[in-house]
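@channel sequence for tomorrow's demo:
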Amino acid sequence: MNPITATTGPPSTDLERTSFTRIGEFCTGHRRALLVGWLLLFVVGIVVGGQVFGHLKDSNGSSSAESVRGFNLLDDAVNHGADMVAVIDGVPVDDPNTRAAVGAAADRVAKVKGVVGVETTYTNDDPQLRASDGSASLMLISTAHTDEPEPSVITQEVTDVRDVLKGSVPGATVKVGGELAVVYDGASTASSDLAKGELIVLPILLLALLLIFRGVRAALLPLAAALVTIAGALLMLRGITGFVNIAGYAVDVVVLFGLALSVDYSLLMVNRFREERGAGHDPHQAVVRR
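structure tokens (generated this afternoon):
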């Protein structure tokens, strides 16, 4: 028999057993502090990590790629940032009242912080700025050029422009789109979709856990672990967005995996704890024993 194998095998197992035993003893000895710590993680994760939706951005790709270098050259060549487009629909373009209302709205938009230019069909002869039947027109809104616009700045600009244009042309429907509006709406949709999904999934999950465990406390434990895991995942992603670009779908992937794994391991631990309690061990021993 190889002496190295004979002497190194059992100590490794003993060390592993001792480590898990120490973890169990620590958890039972500091259970109140751990509960407070998990509660703090949940609150911080929801409050701080929930801001990740305003910092999500798809990466343009590797900077060594020819397409990315070309995009960067074009971006550096222009003196303004991303555009917004307002569609003014439902009123005659040639009506003097429409002309006056659109002109006044354009003047107010031009005063919004970050806006550097506004063009309408009344200041530009381009026929593409008006519908062929004269029932709608466009307003082109240019923003200041920045290398990496902050999500909070995008949110503020889009919100301000939409507030200014809301009801600005009597009888018309005014909608604001464009690159910045798409970024803002995408982040808002991702946040609301996640909240709606959790509101649907968690009650169904709780019902399933109640049927499996036939006990409220046992069923709530995996659910609580899932909520803390989701909050922690959001907090982690928020920290990562400070260094690299994170796509919007990353939140869904991380949350789904976190939810599934936390419930899976919680089911294992609760079932193991019940087995030990059924064998006659007290709660402390049931947690510590492997």
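heads up for whoever presents: The longest strand covers residues 80-89.
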